[in-house]
Structure formats: C-alpha cells, structure tokens
Amino acid sequence: MSTSPQATPGNTTGYGDAAGRSAVETSPWKSGFVVFAGTIMIVAGVFQALAGLVALFRNEVYVIGLNYVFSFDVTTWGWIHLIIGIVVAVAGAAVLTGQLWGRIAGVGIAAVSMLTNFMFIPYYPVWSLLIIALDVFVIWALCTYTRDRSEVAAR
Questions:
Q1: The pTM is what?
Q2: Which range marks the domain in which residue 136 is found?
Q3: Could you tell me the sign of the dihedral formed by the alpha carbons of 110, 113, 115, 121, in that order?
Q4: Which of 49, 59, 86, 106 lies 20 to 30 Å from 112 when distance is taken between CA atoms?
Q5: d(CA 14, CA 26)
Q6: In a domain, 42, yes or no
Q7: Is residue 28 included in any domain, yes or no?
C-alpha cells in the first residue's frame, strides 16, 4: 500500500498515482517554448556580445545622437553589451540543459538586458527594441514553464 496521495480528479497536488504517473501534466507547447527561449537566449547573447565587440573596436559604427539621460561612452556600452551577452548565452545553455538555476538566472538577466537595451535606444533603436521584445518572450516562457514530478524524479 502506497502512502503517497493518489491522483484523483479532485487531487491536483502533483504527486501522482501508484503507477508513478504525474497528476500535473506539462504542456508540450510550454516545454517547446522553453527550448525556443533557451535557443533565443544563446543566439541573442552571441549577437549582443558581437555588438559589444563592435562598440569596442569600431565605435564610429554607432551614431551618438542628442544628449540623453543615460549617455555613456560607446566603449562603456561595448563592455556592458559584451558582458551581458556572454551571461545571457551561458544562461541560455543552462536552460537548454534543464537546469533550474538557468531558468532563474535567465529571468533575471533577461530583465537586466531589457533595461540596458532601453538605455541603449538612442544609439541603435531597432536593435534595442528587438532585443527588448525577445527578452519579454524569454521571461514569459521561463516563468510559465513547470516540470512535472516524474521529470524531476528522473533526474
């Protein structure tokens, strides 16, 4: 006789039934979105690091407009984008390997990426707005994904 709760229509505890099946099912769409979010994080992280390298080595590529509240030297922006890009790519790789810390770090670093790209809008507006939109999707995908208990027990 099993001492764990049984999965019945009224029981949504997620512990599963005697056969080990989980009462909480993970939607294939949600897990697909997490894979897509991890992939987007890696690609966007690499692109953001490349944008940082461009700012470091060829800073005349970025046009400096009017005085802006968040105005930094283009070299400073290069270092900011390089570091954030590397961290986003590493967190994306952790998301793809199924690490919980990767999803938690992914949400945090995507929020930081959104803020820095908001401040970078005067230098490269189309790129910044695209990255902000992708970061919103990444945060949504990482926050809505829940693993079922059988997946956790298999690890």
A1: 0.69
A2: 48-58+73-145
A3: negative
A4: 59
A5: 11
A6: no
A7: no
Q: Which residues touch 88 (CB under 8 Å, ≥6 apart)? A: 41, 42, 44, 45, 48, 106, 109, 110, 113
The DSSP result for 97-146, as a single string, is TT-HHHHHHHHHHHHHHHHHHHHTTTTSHHHHHHHHHHHHHHHHHHHH--
Is residue 111 domain-resident? Answer: yes
Alpha helices for 11-72 (secondary structure H)? 28-57
Instruction: Say if 11 falls within a structural domain.
Output: no
Ranges of beta strands (E only) in 19-133 are none
Give the residue among 26, 142, 38 at the shortest CA–CA distance from 94. Answer: 38
Q: Per-residue confidence of the chain (155 residues) as pLDDT tens digits? A: 445 444 445 444 444 445 554 444 555 545 678 888 899 999 999 999 998 898 888 766 666 666 666 667 778 888 999 999 999 999 999 999 988 888 899 999 999 999 998 988 887 889 889 999 999 999 998 988 766 544 444 44
Contact indicator for 78, 54 with CB cutoff of 8 Å: yes
Structural domains counted in the chain? 1
Yes or no: say if 95 and 41 are a contact pair by the CB < 8 Å rule: yes
Query: 């990482």: which residue's tokens?
Result: 142
Q: Residue 12 has which token pair? A: 């949504």
